[in-house]
Amino acid sequence: MELEQLKQQWEILHKRLDEQEIINKQLMGNAVKGKIKSISNENWGGLILVIFTIPFIWIMQHNYKGLDTNVFYFGLFLMFFSLLFSIYSTFLFDKIMKKKSILEREKGLLYFKKINYISTFIAIVLGIVFMIWVTISMHKQLIQTHMLEIAILSFVAAMGFGIWVTYKYFRKINELHQNISDLKEFEKE
Fold this sequence. Notes:
This protein has five helices and no strands. The chain is mostly helical and 189 residues long.
């Protein structure tokens, strides 16, 4: 009699455990979907920001003629490069996250992270070069208007803000990668 009751209790516990595993898998899947949507929205938002920044820079240069022509076109080149990379990166991320296989998603995300780390390093270096070049080319104007310190502080603040936003973005990508890895391990069991 006791053996039969133990078997029944075991079956009930096993059934509850299976139900809990299904719920956990659904929760993990929902967490992954939420992070994918958040990162995708950030990608599209960045792309839109770059698209609107290019005409703004063009209008500012042609209305105020503040920058040296070479500096302006170098900055414009950087913005177009950023636009092209943003388009590529946004569509690549969306393509990777539409894959059905968790393993394919994880491999694609590793590639995505790699190219974004490289492009971020390049963007920081080129951004610093651009800011120094702008400061040097406008040095006389900035000194005459007593704006040199403000310009330097603005450049440092802009670079700091950009690095902070990028850090948060990469933290989200790393969390997504961890969630995908956890989901992959969960499916193996």
